[in-house]
## 1
Amino acid sequence: MNRYNTVEFQNTVLSGFWSERYNMIRDTTIWAVYNRFVGTGRFAAMKMDWKEGMPNRPHIFWDSDLAKWAESAAYLLRMQENHKLERVVEEFIDDIEAHQDANGYYNIYFTVVEPQARFTRRVDHELYCAGHLIEAAVAYYEATGKDRFLKLMEKYADHIERVFVIDGSASFKTCGHEEIELALYRLYRCTGIKRYLDLSRFFINARGTSKEDYYDFAGARYAQDHLPVREQTTAEGHSVRACYLYCAMADIAREDGDAELSRACDAIFNDITERKMYITGGIGSSAHGEAFMKAYDLPNLQAYAESCAAIGLIFFAHRMNLLAPNGKYGDIIEKILYNGFLSSISLDGKSFFYENPLELDPYLIGRDTSVKYGGTRMPITRRQEVFGCSCCPPNITRFISSAANYLYTTGEGILYINQYMASATSIKTDGWDASVSQQTSYPWDGDVIFNYKGQPVTLAFRIPSWCENYKITLDGKDAAYTLENGFALVKTQGDACVGLSFDMPVTFVEANPAVREDCGKCAVTRGPVVYCAEGVDNGGQLYDLKLDITSPVAVIRDEELGVMALEIGASRRRVFDALYRTVGDDSQNVNVKLIPYYAFANRSECEMMVWLRY
Amino acid sequence: MNRYNTVEFQNTVLSGFWSERYNMIRDTTIWAVYNRFVGTGRFAAMKMDWKEGMPNRPHIFWDSDLAKWAESAAYLLRMQENHKLERVVEEFIDDIEAHQDANGYYNIYFTVVEPQARFTRRVDHELYCAGHLIEAAVAYYEATGKDRFLKLMEKYADHIERVFVIDGSASFKTCGHEEIELALYRLYRCTGIKRYLDLSRFFINARGTSKEDYYDFAGARYAQDHLPVREQTTAEGHSVRACYLYCAMADIAREDGDAELSRACDAIFNDITERKMYITGGIGSSAHGEAFMKAYDLPNLQAYAESCAAIGLIFFAHRMNLLAPNGKYGDIIEKILYNGFLSSISLDGKSFFYENPLELDPYLIGRDTSVKYGGTRMPITRRQEVFGCSCCPPNITRFISSAANYLYTTGEGILYINQYMASATSIKTDGWDASVSQQTSYPWDGDVIFNYKGQPVTLAFRIPSWCENYKITLDGKDAAYTLENGFALVKTQGDACVGLSFDMPVTFVEANPAVREDCGKCAVTRGPVVYCAEGVDNGGQLYDLKLDITSPVAVIRDEELGVMALEIGASRRRVFDALYRTVGDDSQNVNVKLIPYYAFANRSECEMMVWLRY
């Protein structure tokens, strides 16, 4: 048995901030994505009757899009009955059952488009798709207790074992896009069948050990294939692939007590969060390969910071916290949750960003005025309903529908409170029988009333890294606590009411001097929320704004966006005609309105900046 | 006869700053480029015996490379006998004579590679090459009085007239890369044959009037083909092509007194210099098509600012000044001369920049660590001896070998002093019989002693736009002068000694608030010279430097570079480990050394920045 375990989401009923997101996913987004997947022929493709020349040619990653949607549906079904939703998933499983090969193989593209090419090209996402199907099957079994889907996927996993390990008939050893590794571990945890653990370990150990074929445009580093995993110390290549691999590495490190693998995970986690992560928690700064760049190379305007990569880093941090609980993991998860992840979905829940830049300037779109193609690449300025490569939308739905996963970790006699979300949770596993609740307006203020009912326990509250001053009370009195690895440890004798009060002033943050793009600039934050300026509030040419960080900041409710906004003094230069002139001094004072980064691009197409001059 | 005329370079003997450059071209660069052109098979290609499968496949623009080299040689020969150089040019002409078609056609590529494709593809530089050959022929005739080359090129021009106008058998009307227009005008000026003027006018008037084929990746705008020339008001597309067209438009406007064409030239010149020009005088900010971008879109790190485009803008400004003398033209020429043009050649005269960025950071090269190609494009950090597309090196040699062209313009009873260069000039044309000289250490100080010997005249001295305070004396006493169009007009009664003293303090310049990249930054200038910081003097991460523009600035001679350098107070943050932290205040004071921009990248591969925070 593992020492630390997740209190899984189904034990928690959310209220407040995250229940609003959860309800939006349940009532709107899950169907919005479903309709777009129907409209683009993804669901129809499962009938396996597509022929060359027909519209909606299946793509190599369609299985994974569908699987993540089904996984999202499973999470929703786990919380609440929904016959309509369950019927769709059952039909989805019907289609798989009807068209799965006798040997267990299942893949849309490699059945209707290139059946002869099965398991011959590692760059074509075949095992990645299998992994997502396996995750969906596990989720659906855990939600409904119905094991039909799970059995189909066990059969597929058995086939994969045969092809990759027993017969060795596949043309490659590891998939160009990781996912199968963590999925097999999850299948093992659900079924207890050790062969799936072994197969996961096999794929992890094989990576970086042989020269296999890569994408034309990318090298071994792109798929984390440059070194055996235990020798890797830096985050490299495609950031989603990377994080999915790191997740599986952390799973296996924990399962096996593999210290070498743990150390690699540690080093990589630190490399990401101390050198390659935006202040929003976004990662994978390069659009060229959706990949990590060099340390401290974090361009804002052309930040890629894919939504799936943000989710991937949460998954990784979550697993690191199960290896050895530390407040820094919850800090990173929190940073991503309220910023670089949440920006990926519109406030109405219907459209999505694939990329989450830290700066937008519509003027620069088409800046290369005389070329028809090949000009400067700029991120889109408005969220879209669907993408050709639509990995992000169903990743967002499956994430939010299971967001309560990140609240609590249990250890022996200790309950780690990793996140603050208004919620009620009952913990009835692993010898635990307790119920806890949080009353809070988090992230808009830092007060949390935490009620605990159950056996005597140590409560370990994460002290957010953004918080310099805080107060903890136990049953109305100053609590005695010790600090350990970013947690404040409060011992209770059974039922307890703990009051947490995290001071949440507006804070101006600077980046390391090695981050070229942020020099002379600051990001404005309040609690876990990173703010940005938008053109719709502040006019154009935001880059000429200069914040007065000594002026008082007003914190104001914005009803339209449903957020706490900020107002702060600043100056900007008066307009003049000359292209160049001797430095003048005729700037004017202005008030700048800042809104939470995650809420940008919900009103109009306009400029946006996180890092502002000061 | 035109109202204003150039005092051509052959009338001037340079001394001081520009004679050093001139001598370097004459003694080193002309041969360095020659040797590279021999080494790359360009000269050998003129034997027309290349066959498919042989090395050094001729390129469509090789004729123009060779022609610009020959034009450079002609300018040098015009100043000074040089048998070795003359012999090379004579052999070059021998080759042309031996291989020119009976009908006058001459082009290496379209003789040995694709003879069947002559005048069928406008994007393939055929008339561009012809134009450069014509310019070289004119220059060589003017230098030596020998008309063999000129006659060959007249024959070619006659053929072009036949194919494009009389028979109309060419597949297109205007060349995708302008140059023929200004060359034909020059041929007309040299020979007096009006048909060449008509042909130049034909090409100018045809542009933008029909849908012709473009490059796959670019539209009509790329070759200034989006509108008839008289309707164009903005600078668009490939910046070298653009400037060569604008030159010819200004030539024809002046020749014909064409007010509509003049107005178009005016509007375009202002669009370039008031909205699309770097502080170095560089233009064509986009590497995507070597082209103009939107107004005020002037990225520094990825500035393209091709050397040929800088030269092209000088050519254009020079012609605008002949249309209607104005100090602003000399200002722009001066800005380019000492900055964006001069940066294109190494201090030893042996290597060249094609691109002249305003910021370099070697760390960013290969920033997309996992892709093999298709990553972020960055300019090279060191000058090279030759390029595959080697338009710049021989353009630089022909420019410097005729740089004295930009000194003086004559009008009726008025001599315009457009540039300040230590020099002696005799003016014996158009009824003029005068000799003038300048003693000055320009650009390192602003004192000029100007001696004039000749008939009574008005001397019009350009007051540099960077100069706020100046003094003018006439024969030792304060001079009476009037200001007109950027010139100070001093009347003389014959021989005169005029003392000019332009205050040349270090000046901090800001860019228009619409220039996103320069907000919060300043450029440091002294007189016409723009300065930059280099890593070799100031350590890395120049972007974190913050100049103290109130601190005294030391002006110091740097013997290694042969320049006046600056030392100025600044601060930079102390190194810290965190990726992000609350804004601190532990910067340290440092001294920053600045060198003239044109001298960057002559010592080592390192960071460089023109626009610095302050």
## 2
Amino acid sequence: MAKKNNSRTNNSTPQREMNSTDQKTMAALTGLADQIVSAAERGRAPHLDIPSRSLSNVRYNSSKRFIEMGSGKNRRELFNLSQAKSYMQTVLVSSGCKQLIEEDKSTSIRGLYYLLKHTIEGAREETFDDQSDCDPVIEDVEVTLNTLREELHVYASNRGSMVGNITLIDSGDEIDCSRMGSGGYSIPSIVEPEVVEFHKCDAKFVLHVEKDTVWRRFNEDKFWRKHDCILTHGGGQPPRGVRRLLHRLNHELQLPVYCLLDNDPWGYYIYSVLKQGSINLAYESRRMAVPNARYVGLRSKDYERCGLSPSVTINLSETDIKRAKQIASYPWFEKKKPWQKEIEQMLKNGFKLEVEALISKNISYVTEEYVPARLNDQDFLD
Amino acid sequence: MAKKNNSRTNNSTPQREMNSTDQKTMAALTGLADQIVSAAERGRAPHLDIPSRSLSNVRYNSSKRFIEMGSGKNRRELFNLSQAKSYMQTVLVSSGCKQLIEEDKSTSIRGLYYLLKHTIEGAREETFDDQSDCDPVIEDVEVTLNTLREELHVYASNRGSMVGNITLIDSGDEIDCSRMGSGGYSIPSIVEPEVVEFHKCDAKFVLHVEKDTVWRRFNEDKFWRKHDCILTHGGGQPPRGVRRLLHRLNHELQLPVYCLLDNDPWGYYIYSVLKQGSINLAYESRRMAVPNARYVGLRSKDYERCGLSPSVTINLSETDIKRAKQIASYPWFEKKKPWQKEIEQMLKNGFKLEVEALISKNISYVTEEYVPARLNDQDFLD
């Protein structure tokens, strides 16, 4: 039956043949441990230098065109009453990830929390009080070791589907995304090259749509077949797996990525994260951002251009107005006149427009007229 | 380019070859319209009799073992000031669904709302003020015509994935669920036999797990291959498509359905809805409930039985306690002693247990020991 691996006593796990990513991550993890041992042997107080994830250490790199972290670091010391616990937690999470890689298994952030949660021997203290205690430590380890969470064998929830003219090898299975029916291929959380390999691709571009319901319209109309493309969605703000996959499709296969999003601050923000990365996860931009992404979503001028009815507009709320102004002042939007004009026009309109509103023209207007016209005229925002 | 179908003038749409479900639904829709015409011709005030969806018209049918609607109906009249608008909305939604079926297209409830929303000619009145105005009317039409939303070509959002020893035909594509890699087949919202056909099935049962993260553990460990089964999840409370698919797998292929859910009121509730249907959507139980489903989720006795650490327990909140008592008093749980004992024990424990907590034993404990032991001992709740 099951291997009897206790989470705290896994020294006996036999070494498996590791792929190169796992070898690299493992080296980083053991490097971290070696530092501690060597500090102890030299009679020095062990410490970890954790890159700072605070706002002040995040900046927009205009040549790379994404948000990245600065070089600021915070020292975390074992022999410091206020830091000892988080020091210990950092080492504990690292050892949990080491165990996952050794066993060639992966788990969710919740799973890792449960794997490591226990009462500290001889004390009444818990390693973690709850998951919110553990999650930031996972991010600390990611950033300290310069790895992605997925490389540490920890996954986020998966959401998002894909169809189109591409064949993948996922965990050894050949997945032909042009033969996936109405449901599509469910984009997993971990899409690193060791798990998901691009096998054959005839697509000329990727159309990423915001919502699964809009994605379904495009799939039903076999848009991807007519236009030779790949069709993805991320169920709103796309999860890590979808972002990483779009990054890989763009960087490895040189496929342009077009984003069909709503004409509202939330749509703008999704675009911003897809393209430049997010402030919270700035250390991941390098592997997730798609600086060449293009916005083919609804535009503030579409009310007039498409002759939409006032019935399908939605009035901007106070929050919408505030968010829109914030987004307009992002350094990466600030100097782009078309974006400034776009946001200004939305504020002037006083309303937002969802992609679904185009259905008031006719059911397939979005797949048969709107998007083809935008692509044909190269009419998108950068 | 696009067919020029305006949503309000679609009389010219050529008739397509319809499958039998579409023919049936179409007959129900035109039957509704014919009633109105005939009332008008006889100089009578047109009305609709809408089955009542109120709590008082819902009951548990202990021989069918699911929640169903009673025979109560509400009359909706055109020549009644307080009912005229909702009468008109009901007819409008019916005509929108007719258009969808005629064009062989489907849309989301949001799409249908946009399709039908407009200012009424010669008035300042909108057909619908917002979507919450339209959604209950869709349910009215479903229940009046005795159809499922999916048969009206309206879909919910899709969530949930599947892998295992089954091959489907989805919209003409053959989907071999045993070769779907780490991502799996994304379960669509519409899984009616006209869209999703069961082609070949070697599986002996279905294991439905609550969360995608747990599903992934089972998929990584290829549980479905070892145990010859189908593995599904519904991302929490399963959406309509997942429920309907489980119903079909159970009723058409006679596969037992086992549900791996958390030992908490939410897990119990998910089980209750999967098995007996929900109060809100009682009219759908007949097509969605799985009265033979079995609970193999975490049990209140597992804290002791599995030797779990107090670290992984989560204290019950006030809301949890209230919900647990409510669930214990459901007519379909009320007379089941094992369920009463189960809920009583949880309340006595004072804590709940998530499936992920088993990872504290070891990463694959749930796939290699827990579930195999439950299945082997036929140790589940009914």
